[in-house]
Specification:
The protein is built from 8 helices and 15 strands. It is an alpha/beta fold. It has one domain: Rossmann fold, CATH 3.40.50.1820. The strands form 3 sheets. The chain has an 11-stranded mixed sheet, sandwiched between helices. A hairpin with a 4-residue loop joins strand 14 and strand 15. Helix 4 packs across helix 5. The longest helix is centred in the middle third of the chain and has 13 residues. The radius of gyration is 19 Å and the shape is globular.
Length: 337
């Protein structure tokens, strides 16, 4: 286990020995987890005060191997969505359409089907009011609370050799930026950071770019993945969705403006997407040009295999589990109820 100590000035997280304070269960059974009806996955749910619902999904006891490394993926939910909607379900009459748009549960199962050299656990994080920006506004000490949330979830996984992935969709990106605001340096056990059309809050002035670059430069196994699209002119019910300075397209341009000063980025075009890659592929920023001016906010994540791409980009599994923008790669893993 890796508990952390928090200092009020900056919430500096200090990693301690993995072996301290943790009793391992035998085999692949995780202590305190229940067995799900879906592929016998191991699950655990609890509320982190104040007002964060946490649902952890791990491989089945038969598939979880303690001798292998474990990637603990935090998935900060998009605004207005529940954990159930985010996990996803197959279509059924009368079922809410939100179940069909992300399919993080099915994408995770597809990842586990192909990736056999490490375990993948996903922790879904649903904020009160289903909005991470609103939750942060309500709690002035949100950076410290987010650090505590990450520590608390990490402590539920009684396994050695656990590394952390911070991922987010939509307003979930606010959780990551809130976390960055509270640390002087991103901890070493965070190996991947993912923004799935969720980097609205990026600010060079707040040090986000500097911290991300410093983190990337200190270890050749760390990756940053950003998916966005040109949302400047999209409309809903006749009105523009984003304001004159908002949206993820503009946020991504702010990111690129800072990163290009320090990282050599290669720009390529594939279909409707412009891709910027650097640091031997460990920085992967894709912007869909959206020539038809569609709302692609969830299409990037679900229909385009966005979550799969974000977890595999820069690894030997890239394009082997699912290809970004290609047909859905996870259909057989969508749960029916």
């Amino acid at each position: 286990m890796r508990p952390y100590a928090h200092q009020s000035a900056g919430v500096i997280m200090i990693a301690m020995a993995l072996t301290g304070g943790c009793t391992h269960t035998t085999g692949g059974r995780l202590k305190g987890f229940q067995v799900s009806q879906h592929w016998a996955e191991q699950t655990k749910e609890f509320t982190y005060d104040p007002g964060v619902r946490v649902h952890i999904n791990a491989p089945s006891e038969a598939d979880f191997d303690r001798h292998k490394p474990t990637h603990l993926v935090f998935y900060a939910l998009p605004n207005g969505n529940s954990i159930e909607w985010t996990i996803g379900r197959s279509r059924a009459e009368g079922l809410d359409w939100h179940y069909y748009i992300q399919h993080i549960g099915a994408q995770t199962r597809r990842l586990r089907e192909v990736i056999r050299d490490h375990n993948i656990i996903v922790a879904y994080l649903e904020a009160e009011q289903k909005s991470w920006p609103a939750w942060r506004r309500k709690h002035k000490n949100n950076s410290e609370l987010i650090a505590g949330l990450i520590t608390t979830v990490r402590q539920q996984i009684d396994a050695p050799n656990v590394t952390v992935v911070l991922s987010s969709h939509s307003g979930g990106g606010s959780l990551i930026f809130g976390y960055l605001n509270g640390v002087e340096q991103i901890p070493a056990d965070i190996t991947r950071i993912v923004f799935l059309d969720s980097n609205y809050g990026f600010s060079a002035d707040e040090g986000h770019g500097t911290k991300l670059l410093d983190w990337l430069n200190h270890d050749p196994h760390r990756c940053l993945v950003v998916l966005a699209y040109d949302d400047r002119e999209i409309t809903f019910k006749g009105k523009k969705v984003v304001g004159p300075t908002g949206g993820t397209y503009r946020a991504t341009q702010r990111m690129l403006g800072q990163f290009e000063k320090e990282v050599e980025l290669t720009r390529t075009m594939s279909g409707d997407c412009v891709r910027h890659r650097g640091l031997d592929g460990r920085m992967d920023i894709i912007v869909h040009q959206n020539p038809e001016n569609r709302i692609l906010h969830t299409v990037l994540v679900g229909d385009m295999n966005g979550f799969i791409h974000a977890i595999t980009s820069g690894t030997g599994y890239e394009d082997k589990v699912g290809v970004f923008g290609a047909p859905v790669a996870y259909e057989k893993w969508i749960q029916s109820d």
